[in-house]
Design goal:
The complex is a heterodimer of chains A (200) and B (204). The longest helix of chain A has 28 residues. Chain A is globular. Chain A has 2 domains: 120 residues, no CATH class; 73 residues, no CATH class. With 200 residues, chain A is mainly alpha-helical. In chain A, strands 1-2 form a two-stranded antiparallel sheet. Helices cover 68% and strands 2% of the residues of chain A. Chain B has a domain of 111 residues: Rhodanese-like domain (Oxidized Rhodanese, domain 1, 3-Layer(aba) Sandwich), CATH 3.40.250.10. In chain B, strands 1-5-4-2-3 form a 5-stranded parallel sheet. In chain B, helix 3 crosses helix 7. Classes of the chains: A mainly alpha (200), B alpha/beta (204).
């Protein structure tokens, strides 16, 4: 059945409407997980709060498992799912810059918008910085275009590079995620004396 | 520690172990036969030589002409700006990169339109879109664009306009001299009304 737009089940013009709906859901989850607070976000670097790691890692493994099972049920054709192209050096540098921004600003681009939605002034300043950065990046792009497009590896997946099946990669990521959940829980318990566990 | 976290951990573990028992699913990468049949029934894949001539003259950047004849035939004569993908190497490695380029309309042509149509079916089956076939092929190209035939005198004015376009296109492609026979020009018909006879004066 899916993906819906490449299969022609939904026409392409709907993608902005769908993006808006998914964006609202994403913002809701970010806010509900406490990501509008930069204390929660920066806490991961200081070791007192790993909610970011847990939420994103959990979303990741749910999506991985979900796609594999959806593929089995015939709800999604994995061959038609778009895989982002990989540019290794620029992606590594981008990740480092993003991490620094995370640490300095206390937000990632998505959470800054969530925090702005509840009226946090630091989030507005952060968003202003984001747009200034985008402008500088756009204007200076010709100077580092060569680096930006270097190391092109195509639309590859981890499984293809390591020669493993998607199932094995998924199991590996799940194991790492579960180890991270329990490991960070132990770190948190040591760093924070009075810790309250979220009950569900 | 909340017991639900332990349950959740086990649930995720079971689910991730379960993926190993899922059978490999063979997704159909190619167009299924019924869809292909409907596509073949649809004549909208054919493009006339006039349209192609106009696109070449206007230097349409979306036009991608693909000659599916052999290399020798391609070297002898082909259309302006055409690339050569012989029919037998359409499935070969590297050639398919020329198909399915975003915003490009690939037009297959051969001497007639049989080979081109076969190439079209193969490409369609491989899942490519925006592909077309030159109706009548190069033979039709010669007969219509390079050596256009003058329509009969009783033909419609559209036929004469088309003829004029083809003559112009022929000059464009062959560099032929302009022959100034005004065959296609519409001659305005002069209407001469009979003058009313003057009323006889006097008389009985």
């Amino acid at each position: 059945m899916g993906p819906l737009i490449p299969q022609g089940i939904i026409i392409g013009q709907w993608d902005f409407v769908i993006a808006l709906l998914i964006g609202m859901a994403f913002g809701f989850i970010l806010e509900a997980s406490g990501f509008s607070s930069s204390r929660n976000i920066a806490g991961v670097f200081y070791g007192y709060n790993f909610v970011v790691l847990r939420v994103f890692f959990f979303a990741l493994i749910v999506a991985m498992l979900g796609l594999l099972y959806f593929d089995y049920f015939g709800w999604i054709n994995m061959d038609l799912v778009y895989v982002l192209p990989t540019y290794l050096p620029s992606m590594i540098l981008g990740g480092i810059i993003m991490g620094f921004g995370f640490l300095l600003g206390g937000f990632c681009p998505g959470t800054s918008l969530t925090a702005a939605a509840i009226g946090k002034i630091d989030a507005f300043v952060f968003i202003g910085g984001v747009f200034i950065g985008i402008f500088i990046f756009g204007e200076a792009f010709p100077y580092f275009e060569e680096f930006y497009t270097a190391g092109y590896l195509g639309n590859i997946t981890i499984g293809e590079v390591l020669g493993m099946s998607n199932q094995l990669v998924t199991l590996g990521v799940v194991m790492v995620a579960l180890a991270a959940f329990w490991g960070t829980w132990l770190i948190e318990k040591r760093v924070r004396k009075r810790i309250k566990l979220f009950k569900f | 520690m909340n017991r639900n976290y332990i349950y959740l951990t086990f649930l995720i573990l079971i689910l991730s172990a379960g993926v190993f028992f899922l059978p490999e699913r063979n997704n159909e990468k190619f167009l299924n036969p019924e869809d292909l049949m409907w596509d073949i029934m649809n004549p909208s894949r054919f493009i006339t030589t006039d349209n192609i001539a106009q696109m070449i003259i206007e230097k349409d950047p979306t036009l991608e002409l693909i000659d599916v004849r052999s290399v020798d035939e391609y070297n002898d004569f082909t259309l302006q700006g055409a690339i050569n993908i012989p029919l037998d190497s359409l499935c070969a490695e590297g050639y398919q990169d020329y198909l399915g380029i975003e915003d490009m309309n690939a037009v297959f042509f051969s001497n007639d339109d049989i080979k081109a149509d076969q190439a079209w079916v193969i490409a369609r089956r491989l899942g490519f879109g925006s592909i077309y076939v030159l109706k009548g092929g190069l033979n039709c190209w010669i007969n219509t664009i390079i050596i256009p035939k003058m329509p009969v005198e009783t033909a419609s004015s559209e036929a004469f306009e088309q003829y004029n376009f083809r003559k112009g296109a022929s000059m464009y492609f062959t560099g032929a001299e302009i022959s100034s026979d005004n065959a296609g020009e519409k001659s305005s018909v002069k209407v001469t009304r009979k003058k009313k006879k003057a009323v006889a004066e006097g008389g009985c």
